C-alpha cells in the first residue's frame, strides 16, 4: 500500500500513531514502527532535553524503522517555552525522521527558528489542523504534510468542529502536500474510507491503547471495548481549550462546573492529568481525564500492533477491491 506518505518516510503502511500522553513510550513507539506503521514518541512525558534524547535513543535500540515525535504547543501549566525549545533541539540534533506538531504552528514559535532548524536536519514535519485555512498556512510555512483532525478525535480537536469526512477532502482540494486523516480512525474500513477521500494515510491514537504493547491495566482494555461511540464528550470551551474525553465521574463534574460558569480552579483537578497513574496503571476509569475519541465504538479486541496493522491493511485492500468490482 504505497502513498506519498509511505514513500516520503520509507514505511510499509500509511498508518501513523498520534500523541498519547503517558502511553506513547519507546516500547509502544517501536512496536508500531516494527509493525510497518509510523510509531510515536510523545515529548511532553519528558522533563528536559536529556530525557527526550535518551528516549529517542531507546526507540532506536528497539527498531531500525522510522518513527515520529509529537510536540503539542498548547497552553500548559507544566510546560513553557524552555521545555519546548529543549524538545525541538533534541529532535533536530537527533535527526528524528518525523514530527507531529499540534497547537501553535512552528512558524509562529520563536519566529520560526525551530521550523527551519528541523527542516535543515531533515525532519519531516506534519501539523495537525482543523480547518482549510490552517492547512493552507501550514503548507505556506513549509510543512511536509498536514493532519486533517476531525472533531471525532480524542485529545484536543480544534474548535472549528468539522467532521473528518468533510475536512479531509476539503484539505485535499486546497493543499498540494500530503493530507493525513485523523479522527474516527480505527480499522480497515476507516483506512479505506480515508484513502477514498483523498488522504495519503491515517493517524490514530485511541485504537493503539488496545494493543498488547501499550501495557495498560486490563480494566482499561475492557472499558474501551465496552464503551460506544456516543460515550465521549467535548469539554473545555469555557476555559478556551476544547477537548474530547470519555464520559466518567470527573468529566460529568467538569461539565457541571462549565454549565454554571464555574472557575478554572474547579475544573483543573479533573483535567490536569494528575490521576494518570490511577487510570492507566490501576484501571480506575471514573476519576480523571481519559482523552479518547469516538473511535472507541470501533474497538472490539486487544491485539498486538502487528496484528492490528496487518489486519487493517488487509481489510482496507479487500474493501477497496470489492467496491471497485461493483462499477
Q: In words, what does this structure look like?
A:
By secondary structure, this protein is an alpha/beta fold. The two termini are 22 Å apart. The model has no long low-confidence stretch (mean pLDDT 95). Helix 2 runs parallel beside helix 3, helix 8 packs across helix 14 and helix 11 runs antiparallel to helix 12. It is 42% helix and 14% strand. Strand 9 and strand 10 form a beta hairpin. The strands form 2 sheets. The protein has an 8-stranded parallel sheet. Strands 9-10 form a two-stranded antiparallel ribbon. The protein is globular, with a radius of gyration of 19 Å. It has 2 domains: 239 residues, TIM Barrel (Alpha-Beta Barrel); 77 residues, no CATH class. The chain contains 14 helices and 10 strands.
SSE diagram, text form:
Blueprint: H1 4-9, E1 15-17, H2 26-34, E2 39-42, H3 49-62, E3 67-73, H4 81-93, E4 98-103, H5 113-120, E5 124-129, H6 132-141, E6 145-149, H7 164-174, E7 179-182, H8 188-196, E8 201-204, H9 206-209, H10 218-226, E9 232-235, E10 243-246, H11 249-259, H12 264-271, H13 276-280, H14 305-324
Parallel strand pairs: 1-8, 2-3, 3-4, 4-5, 5-6, 6-7, 7-8
Antiparallel strand pairs: 9-10
